[in-house]
Write a structure and sequence with these properties.
Elements lengths: L1 E3 L2 E3 L4 H10 L21 E8 L2 H7 L8 H17 L3 E7 L2 E6 L10 H18 L1 H4 L11 E8 L2 H30 L5 H8 L4 H12 L8 H5 L1 E9 L6 E8 L7 H5 L2 H4 L16 E2 L4
Antiparallel strand pairs: 1-2, 3-5, 3-6, 4-5, 4-7, 7-8, 8-9
Length: 294
């Protein structure tokens, strides 16, 4: 470096500079060539489905209520909402029992649509949130050990494929919950053993399980909470929250039918990939999660 007038002139040895850049790459960098390109196919709905791993043991260790523990379901919902807060391209999520499905917009470019990145990021966010919010829902129970979830990605090329997938999961919710409600009703109310309850329910259809519940356990299945019978669908809404007049982005848990057309007509922006429209019918006393980075 030398002075010209009042200015400093910096001389760079271009030969040495180019060598230093080349040396920044080590001889070990060739291992990157072993990475496999795993991009999700374009123009397909990306569904990330999480399932509790060894959750029967987990629920037993933490003494969850049977047949349903409402606090556990609400914890799952809060953890799923945290995923939707973090990843704005998740347009909808559906959960029941120990599973959750996250629907990413078919035009998403999240992580350049790399399957492994999307799946691991959503799974880790959900799992970490489950532990983080545990004391919010289980104040009287210590978390004995961390839960774990397995994950998979499935691509659905058409809107109807996506709707059929979600219909399958909600139908599964009804089938499983009806059986569990009848099974545990016979045990907790009638005092039967596990084997005796299984024998009575073996081979029965839905109408017969409903009749067993009503006659043997004095339980009308239709009066069970919708969160148990229908699961939870998380949707995004744009609302005005008092006292501020500014628009806020919230995530709302709904326990409604998603098999018929009504839900999809009301939330048509999900399939049409449109921006959220202001929801003028929103009531502040509804349950919702506020997206802080809206």
């Amino acid at each position: 470096m030398r002075m010209i007038g009042m200015h400093r002139v910096l001389h760079i040895n271009t030969k040495e500079f180019s060598i230093s850049i080349a040396m920044a790459k080590s001889k070990y960098e060739y291992v990157r060539t072993f990475e496999v390109e795993d991009k999700c196919l374009q123009n397909c709905w990306i569904v990330v489905r999480l399932d509790g791993r060894s959750f029967h043991r987990f629920t037993s260790a933490h003494k969850f209520e049977k047949p349903n523990d409402k606090r556990a379901l609400e914890l799952m919902n809060r953890s799923a909402a945290a995923v939707m807060e973090e990843f704005r391209d998740v347009s909808l999520a559906y959960g029941q029992s120990d599973e959750y499905s996250f629907i990413l917009r078919k035009n998403t470019d999240l992580y350049n649509r790399r399957q492994s990145k999307i799946m691991s990021a959503i799974n880790s966010t959900f799992s970490a949130s489950y532990v983080y919010y545990w004391n919010t829902y289980f104040e009287d129970k210590k978390l004995l050990y961390p839960p774990s979830f397995d994950a998979r990605i499935v691509l659905y090329p058409s809107d109807q494929n996506l709707r059929d997938y979600l219909s399958w999961r909600q139908a599964d919710t009804h089938i499983n919950n009806l059986y569990n409600t009848a099974f545990w009703g016979l045990i907790l109310i009638k005092g039967l053993s596990n084997n005796e309850a299984e024998k009575i329910l073996s081979g029965t259809v839905s109408s017969e399980k409903n009749e067993i519940l009503f006659k043997e356990c004095e339980t009308n299945y239709n009066n069970e909470l919708p969160i148990y019978r229908k699961g939870t669908v998380l949707v995004r809404k744009l609302v005005n929250l008092p006292p501020s007049k500014s628009k806020k982005h919230v995530i709302c848990p709904l326990h409604v039918d998603i098999i018929g057309d009504s839900f999809w007509e009301e939330y048509d922006e999900i399939l049409s990939l449109k921006d959220l429209k202001l929801n003028k019918d929103f009531k502040p006393d509804e349950t919702f999660y506020l997206v802080k980075r809206s």
